[in-house]
Amino acid sequence: MATSEPLSGWSRLARAGHFLLAGRPLLALVVALITTTGHTMNLRELGVAKGWVPAEVYALQSSYLVALALALLACPHLAQRFSGRGLAEFGLVLLLAGSFWNGLAIHEWLPVFIAGRALAGSGAGLAIYFAPRLLDQRWAFMVPWALILCPVAGPGAVAAASMAHDVSDWEWGFLLEGVAATVSLVLLLSQEEETSLAPAAPHGSPAYLFPLTVALAALLYCLHWGQLHGWLESFDIVSAFLVAIAASATALWLVWPQLDFLALRENGLRLLLFFFGGLCMFFHGYTMNVYGGSLINYSSWQRVWLIWPLPIGVAVGLSLWELVLRRMPRRLEMPTTILGLLLLAAGLYLCYQRTMEWPYWQPTNVFDLDWFPAPQHWELAPGRFLMGFGIGLFMMAMNVWSSPDPAREKKIESLLPVMQFFGGGIAAALLINFLLIGHLVHYSYSADRDYLQAQEIRQRQTDLGDTLRNTGAVAADRTTQALLYRGVRYEADNLVFATIYATFLAAALVLAGMCGVLPAVWKRQPASAPMRSDLPAP
Asked: Which of 156, 276, 384, 459 is the most buried if burial means most Cβ atoms within 10 Å?
């Protein structure tokens, strides 16, 4: 008769230590996710210190996320030649090299910084793809929660590092990323056993990746510098545009034999929604960095409080699906997707309403910004939480919505995170054009009211001049003219953010309508699939 003796205290401690050490690859995933979601927190201070305009500063974020997406595309091909553990470790080497490069080479020019961010993004892509495959089965349950919670922790961690000396030292955010990657690399190198889960075999040749990289680099150059250089009036923009077209045609020609058009038809809506979800999450994180630095002069740490409601809402949406909705007997993927898009639209409407309701047009806002302060944390938090909650719901619902054929599903599932990060990379370029073009449009309208509403403008000038004279200001008339000019710019900036919310609101409603109509037209009846633990969360 077999008997079992109770474990001693030392045996329990040894078993617990073995369990913790088996989770070392999880740290690599966490570091990559925190870097991806948090490193924009020090870009504003970097731009101010280097004298770069937003179009140049946010090129760093575009290069990082597009490099990450391209690395995810290359990972299945790399896994056929190298071990998963070696690639995860190499990814951490690239991540720490790019982060230290950006944190230490503080006097270098813009292309050097862009190269460092591209290097770090490539490393983060390798770590995100391969680190979960190295985990012991006992740790697999933690991967979805890392994907859910790390985007919440990322902005706070990088901002805290940037504010370590009570001022916004932008280089400390990059150094934190480098140190974290170094620690996770050392721990991963100390792991003796290798339990790598082999990814699915890639479909076709990776020859298209090089022209695709060239096309995306040229496209990002056009989007970031096009408005600054005059679009088609500039030789370099026209040249970059032609290069993008030629490289895109070459990549399409190379990848054409590998395309499964039936799979693309079945999952086109999923790919579009993942692109839109990544676009929304990263874009509306960037907006609060700009908003907190233009209408409100906030530090890195203060801007985190503007950003946090959105990733918290995303985490709540993902958690609700993981804990409740996906365990329900009925198929709720498409209704949940439509609900998520409508919640996103509702959050955008609340932010639009807050942006337009405060008296941003009052001259006293220019003279004393505390008189009618722009909407801040708590005014914007409900709308931003609803936005994040909706994004989390529809992206998770699309994650489990699968093709009827498992073979076609395997071809599509690896493209979902790629589309998400491509959306994030394009989001930075899109924001730049919203800011530059939108400011010109709204500034022209606001400034032209000197003729359209001459009586109103004269009354503003009289009121502001009286206020300044009553306070004993010297040269009150000249000061009034200068402050009214600032007021026109202030009003134009506010209208730019209102335009952003209105545009994304319309896009969310259009996509909700598409989700209600297209599945009925196609008459698809896909089966639900379990949540994939290797899918990067926003």
From this structure: 384
> Which of 452, 400, 163, 512 lies closest to 305 in space, CA to CA?
163
- Diameter of the chain by CA atoms? 102
Q: C-alpha angle 186/65/114, rounded to 5°?
A: 85
Q: Give yes or no for a contact between 345 and 379, defined as CB atoms under 8 angstroms apart.
A: no
CATH number for region 21-202: 1.20.1250.20
Joined together, the tokens standing for residue 272 give 């579009």
Residue 68 one-letter amino acid? L
Q: What is the pTM of this model?
A: 0.88
For the stretch 502-527, pLDDT in tens is: 999 999 999 999 998 877 666 544 44
Cα distance between residue 64 and residue 145, in whole Å: 24
Residue 528 pairs with which residues in a beta bridge? 401
Report the alpha-carbon distance of residue 374 to residue 354 in Å, rounded: 9
DSSP 8-state symbol, 375: P
452-486 pLDDT, tens per residue?
Answer: 566 777 777 787 788 778 877 777 778 777 777 77
Tokens of 79: 């896994």
Q: Are 149 and 134 in contact (CB under 8 A)?
A: no
Residue 94 near residue 119, CB atoms below 8 Å = yes
